[in-house]
Design a protein that fits this description.
The chain is α/β, with parallel strands linked by helices and 79 residues long. It contains 2 helices and 3 strands, in the order E-H-E-H-E.
Length: 79
């Protein structure tokens, strides 16, 4: 687990998965959009949803992991 974003080496990731509530995906830019600008060559999958709770986030995480099979070259962030 990384708790200090400044220490993330974005160059080693090929895909970025984000899970969360309206802070993750909304009508205006969120933290996912800011990180996406730091990783222009990375595929971004934003599974955030306004009003989402922990159950939704956990289910989406499980669905995405089953579909994409997370690896060491994936950055997975949950807010």
């Amino acid at each position: 687990m990384i708790v200090e974003p400044k220490k993330i080496d974005f160059s080693k990731y090929k895909r970025f998965f984000a899970f969360g509530c309206s802070f993750t995906k909304w009508r205006w830019p969120t933290w996912v959009d800011i990180l996406q600008m730091q990783m222009p060559n990375v595929e971004v999958y934003n599974a955030g949803r306004g009003g989402a709770g922990n159950l939704y986030i956990a289910c989406q995480y499980s669905l995405y992991n089953n579909k994409f099979r997370f690896t060491d070259t994936d950055l997975v962030a949950i807010l």
